[in-house]
Amino acid sequence: MVTGTAAGRPPSPAPGDPVLVVDDLVVEHRNRTSGEIFTAVDRVSLRIGAGQSLAVVGESGSGKTTLAMAATGLGPRTGGRIELLGRDLDALGRSELRALRPEVQVVFQDPHGSLDPRQSVRSGFAELRKLQPERTTWITDEALLERVRLSPALLDRYPHQLSGGQAQRVCIARALLMRPRLIVADEPTSGLDVSVQADVLRLLQEIRETTGAALLMISHDLAVVRSVCEAVIVMFRGQVVEAGACEQVFRAPTADYTRELLDAMPGSRWRSRR
Ligand SMILES: Nc1ncnc2c1ncn2[C@@H]1O[C@H](COP(=O)(O)OP(=O)(O)OP(=O)(O)O)[C@@H](O)[C@H]1O
Question: Which molecular function GO terms apply here (predicted)?
């Protein structure tokens, strides 16, 4: 459970209560030269509750990132309805939207690209604390680094002095500092050495369990999805071709495309039986 809400925050959702509900989301892009319209996300619906984890899988270009950004109000949307923490995003004014924004934190694929190279870990935290003074008093910098299994000795390091795994943990710490109700992790381990991938995934899991945040994970790696998420939606050319509990979808996929994804996994133990 999320506890100790800062002033003005929406009430803490109970485990399983809806954090994000998306209905018929559409994202279209217009080609500037030809004027042609490309539908990157085509009538996608999803729901994720507090403490739950949902993965979006699909090959490159299937619309995963576009969906995740639009679904959380962080990217453009052509149509559809989004409810974040019980609030219809279209019904909110600018200041209400701004107040809701810290509730969603995104961890990207390239940790070094996400961090300001001129900022030490400590000054990066300080900047966030200045932006959100009430929300961020709950933990010290040292304890925050300990929460992501990093030594407080790293506080005065700059991004180039951190390994990929350490930098990703700093990004996760920055997200955690905001006490978000929803963490979006966009291929959070694909830029990391195999040796540290599992640790970072475990950390995201642990944060979900201990804070009650919901986790929306984007990945093309089905092994990662299976190890972290309870539910999955499979995207192909902007549409959802299959959705359900991970266990069910991996054991008995119903869509040909899901079977192809499973079969394409190198040395897959989950190769579908046809
Ligand atoms: N601003 C944009 N203008 C035009 N087309 C776009 C824009 N952003 C994304 N697209 C297109 O939308 C489609 C979906 O892209 P998206 O990045 O969401 O896919 P993805 O599944 O996340 O892929 P990857 O795994 O490679 O990141 C792609 O064909 C992409 O080229």
Answer: ATP binding; ATP hydrolysis activity
